[in-house]
Amino acid sequence: MFKIIAAIDEEGGMGKDGDLPWTIRNDLSFFRFMTIGDTVVMGRKTFENTGNLPNRRMIVLTSREDYDKGDLQAHSTGGVKLYVSPHQTTWIGGGRSVYEQYLGAADEVVLSHVEGSYDCDMFFPMNKLDQNYEKNAEFEAEGFTVSRYKLF
After folding, report:
1. What is the pTM of this model?
2. Which of 39, 53, 63, 118 is deepest in the core (most CB within 10 A)?
3. Whole-number Å distance between alpha carbons of 52 and 71
């Protein structure tokens, strides 16, 4: 089962200059809580910004044939499927192009909405979210709100 997890600001922004433009400890803890013990798929650039995350199996989705970082490397979403079980949760952790590849295919999207606007230069593809998912839950946390969306 594939699930997308992301954090966005009030304008749908999720990155600035290749990095997360905010530091909200509770949101980082939420990401850790949700993904711990599972597999996380990230694009190469996102992985290089975060590195290996403890207690998770990291799959780096990259077009570079010689890339050898992370626990596993895949060159397509089909390649990722070779490494995961459909009965286990696999989290899609970004970046934008990876989200675009999985939106419409992932079973669920978990979005943290952080308070404020952060002059982002990278945005979550909200149009694909709206076309393929419906919100089925929402809860408030300190500094952010979490919305969960299910595939139509």
Report:
1. 0.96
2. 39
3. 8
